[in-house]
Design brief:
By secondary structure, the protein is mostly beta strands. The chain contains five helices and 31 strands. The radius of gyration is 21 Å and the shape is globular. The protein binds CU-O-CU linkage and copper (II) ion.
């Protein structure tokens, strides 16, 4: 039954090959991956990391991330109370429960320290880079000024080893977001942290909040790193297998315990920070009421389980029963799991680490509706952009419309347009497609999102209002796919 549900959700293509839905399709291909995967940084490496400096010679017919249009849009958001943060990206040793690993993280912990502000605040964050590679910080899902978006070679120069970069922008929209580097495959190390923008007029009532970050882990285990993994995939293709799956930085042997009282209403904010894993999540003994996805409210919907692609977020409300309950997390298609614990009393261990809710009703974003106040007004698109996802597991040649990432290519839009992106997945794999700087609406009043799952050989239309000028990435949030070429740029024409 579980297998059937899983196939129904992400498609049957790979499962039919007999090695699990998201597993490799067998024989390794002879083709090395496209060499474009590191082109993003190569031509700017070693260049001085000057704040505000154009990353490239921007083509003159497009709005520059450092242009007056971007500044004018930010001015309309207005400055707010300044909230100051400092993040140091550093090589360190992390305790993930089952063992210690050498990795890279923000301030020696995984997930990094939560960043929490109120909508309207100005975030002033200094990123210090103590890593042996250049890095940047990207604010996943935030509709911010383009020059603070943290994309090396597009919106800023990479931050060199030993250097700092000051990010400063108004966080205008409330919601559940997160931060991670946009350099290479650094995201698949310990470099991620939740970013919560509170709503000063929060309409939900709850007693407690639990931020839950999900991750797949290989860094520092058996000599592996995300960089060696990318090399391996280029030469031998195949699948990424992870030795550990973590909830809030802990493997299931030593899970995080969240304490509450019976009857407490808890808002759980779920974030998938994985590199190559969709997670199915359920809370044993409870049904969840979904209130938001990707930061934006939906018409509340009850479910047993949720599926999160990489980069996606869901907020749910639960009313706590009396006892000890697993927050069970299944690495979809990989047959492995992770867990955290919700407890109202005692010390007894979790009895059923795999609760029946995990195989119960599974809610996906296409069945949700946006809350009325954030629903896109129905409108014919002024422009339709077709993005066909191309490539294969065997050749490891991921691309969009057959073209691997090229930092000088743009899909043009104009400010004020209603834009439709038609994603057509021409591959045998599923891809969580992410757009920077905007939220799109799923069809027929569907939820506002910034990341949406494309099942194998499926098509999804997403509509957005072009209201945030600049150069914005569109990419698969499988970091090994995006880094191998499944990434492009939406550019505002002047
Ligand atoms: Cu989570 Cu391009 O980002
Ligand atoms: Cu992908």
């Amino acid at each position: 039954m579980h297998e059937k549900t899983r196939r129904a959700v992400l498609g049957t293509g790979i499962a039919a090959a007999g090695s699990g839905l998201l597993a490799a399709c067998g024989s390794p291909g002879p083709h090395p991956r496209a060499t474009g995967h590191n082109g993003m940084e190569s031509n700017t490496m070693g260049a001085p990391a000057r704040a505000g400096a154009p990353a490239e010679d921007d083509p003159p017919d497009y709005v520059s991330p450092h242009g007056p249009e971007v500044a004018a849009t930010e001015q309309r958001r207005g400055p707010g109370p300044v909230r100051t943060f400092r993040l140091t990206a550093t090589a360190t040793t992390l305790d993930i429960g089952a063992r210690k690993v050498a990795s890279w993280a923000y301030e020696d912990q995984v997930p990094g320290q939560e960043i929490r502000v109120t909508a309207g605040d100005t975030i002033a964050l200094t990123l210090a880079n103590n890593l042996p590679q250049p890095t940047t910080l990207h604010w996943h899902g935030i509709r911010l000024r383009n020059d603070m978006d943290g994309v090396p070679g597009v919106t800023q120069r990479p931050v060199r080893t030993g250097a700092t970069f000051d990010y400063r922008f108004t966080a205008y929209y409330p919601g559940t977001y997160w931060v991670h580097p946009h350099s290479g495959v650094q995201l698949d190390r310990g470099l991620y942290a939740p970013l919560i923008v509170e709503d000063p007029k929060e309409p939900l009532k709850y007693d407690k909040e639990w931020v839950v970050v999900l991750d797949d882990w290989l860094d520092g285990v058996g000599g592996r790193t995300p960089d060696t993994e990318l090399e391996r995939l280029g030469g031998h293709a195949g699948d990424v297998t992870y030795p550990y799956y973590l909830v809030n930085g802990r493997s299931p042997e030593s899970p995080q315990v969240f304490r509450a009282k019976r009857g407490d209403r808890i808002r759980i904010r779920l974030i998938n920070a994985g590199g190559d894993t969709a997670f199915r999540v359920a809370l044993g003994g409870h049904r969840m009421t979904v209130t938001h996805t990707d930061g934006y409210p939906v018409v509340p919907a009850k479910t047993d389980a949720l599926l999160l692609g990489m980069g996606e977020r869901y907020d749910v409300l639960v009313t706590v029963k009396d006892g000890v309950f697993p927050l069970a997390v299944l690495a979809e298609g990989k047959g492995r799991s992770a867990m955290a614990v919700l407890r109202t009393r005692g010390k007894s261990p979790v009895k059923f680490p795999r609760p029946k809710e995990l195989d119960g009703e599974l809610l996906t974003a296409d069945r949700l509706k946006a809350a009325e106040d954030v629903r896109l007004t129905p409108k014919e698109p002024d422009r339709i952009i077709r993005m066909r996802l191309t490539g294969s597991m065997r050749r490891w040649n991921w691309a969009i419309n057959g073209r691997p990432y090229d930092p000088t290519q743009r899909y043009p839009v104009r400010a004020g347009e209603r834009v439709r992106i038609t994603f057509v997945n021409g591959t045998d794999m599923w891809h969580p497609m992410h757009l920077h700087g905007h939220t799109f609406g799923l069809p027929d009043g569907g939820p506002r999102k910034d990341t949406t799952i494309l099942r194998p050989h499926h098509k999804v239309n997403v509509d957005l209002d072009a209201d945030n000028p600049g150069l914005w990435m569109v990419h698969c949030h499988n970091v090994y796919h995006s880094e191998s070429g499944m990434m492009t740029i939406l550019g505002y024409q002047k």
